[in-house]
Amino acid sequence: MKKVLMGNHAAAMGAMLAKVDVVSAYPITPQTQVVEFLAEQKAKGAFAGQYLKVESEHSAMAELLGAATAGARCFTATSSQGLAYMHELLHWVAGARLPVVMVDVNRALAAPWNLWTDQSDSLSQRDTGWMQFYCSTNQEVLDTVIMAYRIAEEVHLPAMVVLDGFTLSHTYEPVDIPDAERVDAFLPRYAPSQILDTKTPLSFGALAQPKEYFRLRRRMAADMKRAEDVIMTVGRDFGESFGRRYGLFDAYRCDDADAILVTSGAVGCTAKAAVDALREKGYAAGNLRLRVFRPFPADALAAFVRPGIPLAVIDRDYSPGGTGIWFEEIKAALYSREVRPPVYGFIAGLGGGDITSELLQEAWLKTLSGRAAEAEASWVEDAR
Amino acid sequence: MLEIRFHGRGGQGTVLAAKILADAVLLAGKAECMAIPEFGVERRGAPVTAYARISSGKILLRSRIYEPDAVVLMDPTVAAGADIVKGLKPGGALVLNTEAPLETLEARYPGFKLYAVPARRIAIDNKLGPVSAPMVNTAMVGAVCAIFSLADPASVEKAIRDNVPSRHDANALAARQAAAAVLWRQPCPS
Asked: Domain B2-185, what architecture?
């Protein structure tokens, strides 16, 4: 059934369809409608799970740490400062190998105060052990929340589903809402083998000696790597069940492209329009939209790129003292490979600045002509 | 693709108008619609902008709209503090909530196709919102859908009933009355 939904409601609908057992959340703009919607459903009796009101994002994640240890399928949503405040618990949940799924609605970090989209909040949680999926439409948001549970529960790692603040979160567009019974068949009940249960007492999160810690981290690394295959398999299964297939990335008109835009999130959608516009002007443009940031699909990317076909990486984020975060990751992923195309970086749209088709076309043309600097990212802005 | 920019004030239901429009277009089943509220801090009375894209094909652009095909002015007082025709394509459509005569509007907005909708009066007649701040959104949506043939009256009515929190009949009636009351004129040669 198709309905017009804002991105936040698409995310909440995904959590409802995944039949989550526990929601623990604290409101923050631009995420608020995600948890508001779930609270309304709870009040109406349409949501059967527990809804826990807490005093902070730190507590929200702490509650989920406990609930997931007891075997519950858990959900929360946050943005920006809220995500930053959760940081310590993100490590805890990942280290405990709990498949919690969280929606992060991208918003720039203060200071100065800003409400608008910027990937610095989610990308700065890179090293916490959470998988990260970036969505480009409200449909993809709903679908990815459902897929995230299948993937997370298979590899025993938490997952963050990321959408652009306002550009997706507050934008209304038609979304096909999958049939609940078919979602149940796609996503069976969560049945962990070891849970916190007074009848069969176990110790969780106990002190680990260096040797044990090292081995556990190494296992986490292996499961992160394995997640790449699981993401592909689950994306293919989802396509068979619901007609929409997903992978590690979404390549658009790349086969014969002379240069390729590399994008993520909602910008990956506008970039397709930019590619179409360039093609109409006679340029062979393509767009590679990355869906997964962790695990970083380095092997798949290395197999995808072609010698001499440059990449124009668009970052709506910035690592002070470094450069664009996707730009750095992509260069690191390709450095040790035989095929190493030129990689150009563009920092754009920080704090919600508009990333327009025109701006993307400009970045692509600069890349094609080799006019962009290679070592450092260029800062670009649509002057309107 | 048709690109529309809406100007209104916080609390007048401008964002809901864009959402109702998207619902009506989906229900009509002929095109896709993306409704984009302006990315701002919500304050009652402050100028609010929203955008909508309507297309028979897939909508890929997710940026703001800088050169709209049409501008819809929900609240005439917004025009005093903002250049409401900024970027409006030459010969583009300007849909105004006003009872001012077309001649006056033509002098003020030369070069655009003008549509005058007495939405304020219709909202007051139907007792939608307080007299000091009538809720004109459903009347304006009814007019916009009729002007651009975006959705049939039945789809508009269903979209309104699905979205407005109360006074369903009065809101549906306001949309029908507004669609019938539109006065328009081609751009005068400049």
From this structure: 3-Layer(aba) Sandwich (3.40)
Final residue before a domain boundary, out of A181, A214, A242: A242
Question: Quick check: is A384 in a domain?
Answer: no
Residue A4: list chain B partners with CB under 8 A.
19, 22-23, 26, 33, 35
Q: Which two tokens stand for residue A97?
A: 């190998």
pLDDT tens by residue, A316-359: 999 999 999 999 999 999 999 999 999 999 999 999 999 999 99
Measured between CA atoms, the residue of chain A closest to residue B20 is A4
Does A359 lie in the same domain as A216? Answer: no
Nearest CA in chain A to B63: A356
Chain A residues touching residue B39 (CB < 8 angstroms) = 115-117, 165-167, 170, 352
Q: Is the Cβ pair B39, A174 closer than 8 Å? A: no
In chain B, where the domains are located: 2-185
High-pLDDT (> 70) share of chain A, %: 100
Assigned domain for A197 exists: yes
- In Å, how far is B116's CA from the nearest CA of chain A? 27
| B172, two tokens | 């549906």
- Identify which of A82, A161, A80 has the alpha carbon closest to the alpha carbon of residue A117: A80
Would you list which residues of chain A are within 8 Å, Cβ to Cβ, of chain B? 2-4, 115-117, 165-168, 170-174, 266-267, 269-270, 272-273, 276, 352, 354-357, 384
Alpha-carbon distance of B80 to B75, in angstroms, equals 10
Residues of B in contact with A116 (CB under 8 A): 39
What pLDDT does residue B81 have?
Answer: 86
Q: Give A272's contacts (C-beta < 8 A, 6+ positions apart).
A: A252, A287, B60
Distance CA A155, CA A224 (A): 7
Size of the A and B interface in Cβ pairs below 8 Å: 66
Closest by CA to A226, choosing from A152, A124, A161, is A152
Q: Domain limits at A15?
A: 2-242
The count of domains in chain A is 2
* Residue that is last in its domain, among A209, A242, A275: A242
- Single pTM value for the model: 0.97
